[in-house]
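Box 3.1 A note on notation
Throughout this textbook, protein chains are presented in two layers. The first layer is the amino acid sequence; the second is a token string describing backbone geometry. Keep the layers aligned when reading.
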Amino acid sequence: METPESLLYLSHKTLESLSLTIEDAIESIEHLLRRRRQSQVWNAPKAVITPPDGRYMMATLSAADDPPFLAVKSLILNPHNRERGLPDINSLITLLDSNTGLPLAVMDGNWITAVRTAGLSAVAARRLARSDTSIAAFIGCGVQARSHLQAFSALFPLKEIRAFGRGSVNREALCQAAEKLGLSAVASRSAQEAVSDADLVISTVTLSPELVPFLDARWLKPGTFVTAVDLAASWLKDSMPAFERIIIDDLEQETQMPTPLVDPELVNGDLTGLVNGDIAGRCSDDEKVAFIFRGLALGDLALAALAYQRARQSFKGFEIKR
């Protein structure tokens, strides 16, 4: 790969202007998951710092030979940011040439995080959700809910969403976004009301030391698919056996985490195994399945690499001379 004489800065606005679709994201993520099996992609477990004041600090690292990039993401979640009029999460991604180590780009991590997270969910959902999914329940109505709405409305014949969250502003914004997509939108009075008849449940509750689990998998009807973006922290642990199968994002990463996402005996495999055919997709219309994930650095690499390549092709971004 020819190394340019400058590196790019890609802002949130510039990344949005690249018009990357959910299909683009899925293709890029699945490409890396297949190359990982061939030892051409490497994914380090995320590094996390949790100060006692409720902040969540994280760094991720992933590298590939095809395409030849290395991505590092630095992220801080601070629930007190909303008091400052700032997003709960702020992050930055740096992209390097994985052969030479030369820096190629610096980009807004919030946009990448939103799109790659929905992309990871979509990779799982295409194999684990019912193809006739029409009702989606959103528990948590912030940035991740909106990115998942965009992704899943493109993948499934959705007709209706149910929204439940503590913030009325976010809930109303999510409902309005759904209506603009031609869907009916219901602001549910309780979490149980939202999920009890849904085909698809997306939980994106903001993590905090004060979070008390309140979602019960026993409320779900047969055939429901759940994607738990919030590490399943909002789900009651003793209800998890209600799922016939649970898939996580990365078995290797999970062995190095101090606290498991879910009882390891309930885990049937991970996303790499699902994409490479080691484990089956949905086995029956009545099967209740959950995808629970911490976040896979490989997903950040997939979207950052895709965004960088598209920006270079379309001559977008701010050039910074070396």
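The first strand starts at residue 6 and ends at 10. DSSP finds nine helices and 15 strands in the chain.
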